[in-house]
């Protein structure tokens, strides 16, 4: 068995940004499209998104939310109804102004001046306004509430600096939109969605997150409250992995979403919106990847077990393929994480060692190699992607087990890998959150002097607003820091605000962020 190691050319510790891009290429996840800021998501990368989508969609539907679809093009006038909303997205909007092209007389094409639209159309950056129009039509009485909708779609936000999966001009997401009778019910939905995101991130993506409320300056444009889940990447930076917004009656007033209450009076609905996107795949890469490529948690792996027969273009190949197919069929009847196992028999011609390293870079959770000798002995060679190397001899940590024993333990093994990846990430995150910092200069010193990857700092603040908050934001910007959120499960504040010196109201997390 060949022991040649096909590691990445860049290590995380040396250049995390370059390593991230190399993992995307080496794992065959995505590539540049030739369209500025847009990417092509390749089959393995899209397969991961399909798994996230499937698991999230099950959670969404279990809460009684129904899927639907709304137009990609939104009249510009829709955005002008909600001033704060349009201000928040104005610089990112892609706008359609013409509906036809004509020849420019030079062999090219140009917009036909006679085909200018009466009203420009915005390419969907988010759908609160157009879904609000539909809600205004659908809701007439308290009996129509709550109205619970979700759509899976693409959105466009014209980004200046793009990075695949993390910040692209076009990306895929789901956006939930709900309408309720009162504040209490809307807030309950806001927190239900937040908890759904936390559970999906931690249980499906093995991504430990901290759920909490965003500060006033980080709220979604037009929201009364914004809540997020924040994940720590291996470079110590924070990634906002999902958000849930309580919108009050702001969008209901703008769109006219009203209902007749039980006493016959007209009331405005309280609405929410919540969403996650393909940014989650970036989070998986930066949380679980290593210097050999990607490691995909079994719950979201398009294929959980890869069987590689060691083919030699010889007559006995047929018998070996039959042996491997029997193993694949045997495994396909087993379950793990509540589903049937996803098993691929890799019949593509090529050297087994080269194919093994292809699957290592892609992050398949378990890789099996089977040669003629293994078949004769009724065995398989097993490699766990989360425990790739033998620490004693520096070689791949291959384990030889009987075919029947592996089939019997495969489900439990995948569940163990899922737990292992989560626990590894949780321990790393917890070890890199610094607490007990009480002076602003100590925060600055921490991020300047704690090495390349300083992690997060928890501090206490007085929850300032207005000009006082703007001063805090500018102070943070000067050292490239952001407030991530107020942890939902955090300890109560007991000291003074590190920014104002006033009695502290709550604890916040400060970090560099994507």
From TrEMBL:
It is found in: Cytoplasm. Residues 45-297 form the Aminoacyl-transfer RNA synthetases class-II family profile domain. Its EC number is 6.1.1.15. Gene3D superfamilies: Anticodon-binding domain (3.40.50.800), Bira Bifunctional Protein, Domain 2 (3.30.930.10), C-terminal domain of ProRS (3.30.110.30). One of its GO terms (molecular function) is proline-tRNA ligase activity. Pfam families: HGTP_anticodon, tRNA-synt_2b. It catalyses: tRNA(Pro) + L-proline + ATP = L-prolyl-tRNA(Pro) + AMP + diphosphate. It is an enzyme of class 6 (ligase). It comes from the Bacteria. Keywords: Aminoacyl-tRNA synthetase, ATP-binding, Cytoplasm, Ligase, Nucleotide-binding, Protein biosynthesis. PANTHER family: BIFUNCTIONAL GLUTAMATE_PROLINE--TRNA LIGASE (PTHR43382:SF2), PROLYL-TRNA SYNTHETASE (PTHR43382). Homodimer. Catalyzes the attachment of proline to tRNA(Pro) in a two-step reaction: proline is first activated by ATP to form Pro-AMP and then transferred to the acceptor end of tRNA(Pro). Consists of three domains: the N-terminal catalytic domain, the anticodon-binding domain and the C-terminal extension. HAMAP family: Pro_tRNA_synth_type3. NCBIfam families: proS_fam_I. Belongs to the class-II aminoacyl-tRNA synthetase family. ProS type 3 subfamily. This is Proline--tRNA ligase. It comes from Erythrobacter fulvus.
């Amino acid at each position: 068995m060949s022991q040649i190691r096909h590691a990445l050319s860049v290590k995380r510790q040396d250049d995390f940004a370059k390593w991230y891009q190399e993992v995307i290429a080496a794992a065959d996840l995505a590539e540049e499209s030739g369209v500025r800021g847009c990417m092509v998501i390749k089959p393995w990368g899209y397969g991961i998104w399909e798994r996230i989508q499937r698991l999230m969609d099950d959670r969404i539907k279990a809460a009684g939310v129904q899927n639907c679809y709304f137009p990609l093009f939104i009249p510009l006038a829709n955005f002008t109804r909600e001033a704060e909303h349009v201000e928040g997205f104005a610089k990112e909007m892609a706008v359609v102004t013409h509906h036809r092209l004509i020849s420019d007389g030079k062999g090219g094409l140009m917009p036909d001046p006679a085909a200018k639209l009466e009203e420009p159309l915005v390419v969907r950056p988010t759908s609160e306004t157009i879904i609000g129009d539909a809600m205004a039509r659908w809701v007439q009485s308290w009996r129509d509430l709550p109205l619970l909708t979700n759509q899976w779609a693409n959105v466009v936000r014209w980004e200046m600096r793009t990075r695949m999966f993390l910040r692209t001009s076009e990306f895929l997401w789901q956006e939930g939109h709900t309408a309720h009778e009162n504040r209490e019910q809307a807030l309950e939905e806001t927190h239900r969605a937040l908890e759904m995101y936390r559970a999906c991130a931690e249980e499906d993506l093995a991504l430990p997150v901290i759920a909490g409320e965003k500060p006033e300056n980080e709220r979604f444009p037009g929201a009364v409250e914004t809540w997020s889940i924040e994940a720590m990447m291996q470079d110590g930076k924070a990634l906002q992995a999902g958000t849930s917004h309580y919108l009050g009656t702001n969008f209901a007033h703008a769109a006219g979403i009203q209902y007749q209450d039980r006493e016959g009076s007209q009331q405005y609905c309280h609405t929410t919106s919540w969403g996650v996107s393909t940014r989650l795949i970036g989070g998986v890469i930066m949380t679980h990847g290593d210097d050999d490529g990607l490691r995909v948690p079994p719950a979201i792996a398009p294929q959980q077990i890869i069987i590689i027969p060691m083919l030699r273009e010889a007559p006995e190949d047929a018998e070996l393929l039959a042996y491997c197919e029997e193993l694949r069929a045997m495994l396909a009847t087993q379950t793990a994480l509540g589903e049937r196992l996803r098993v691929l028999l890799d019949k593509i011609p090529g050297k087994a060692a080269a194919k093994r390293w292809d699957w290592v870079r892609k992050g398949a959770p378990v890789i099996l190699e089977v040669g003629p000798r293994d078949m004769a002995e009724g065995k398989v060679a097993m490699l766990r992607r989360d425990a790739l190397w033998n620490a004693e001899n520096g070689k791949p940590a291959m384990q030889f087990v009987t075919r029947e024993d592996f089939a019997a333990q495969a489900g439990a093994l995948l569940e163990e890998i899922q737990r292992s990846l989560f626990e590894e990430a949780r321990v790393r995150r917890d070890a890199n959150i610094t607490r007990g910092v009480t002076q602003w200069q100590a925060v600055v010193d921490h991020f300047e002097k704690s090495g390349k990857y300083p992690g997060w700092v928890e501090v206490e603040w007085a929850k300032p607003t207005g000009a006082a908050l703007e001063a805090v934001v500018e102070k943070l910007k000067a050292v490239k820091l952001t407030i991530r959120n107020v942890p939902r499960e955090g300890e109560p504040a007991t000291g003074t605000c590190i920014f104002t010196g006033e009695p502290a109201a709550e604890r916040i997390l400060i970090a560099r962020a994507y």
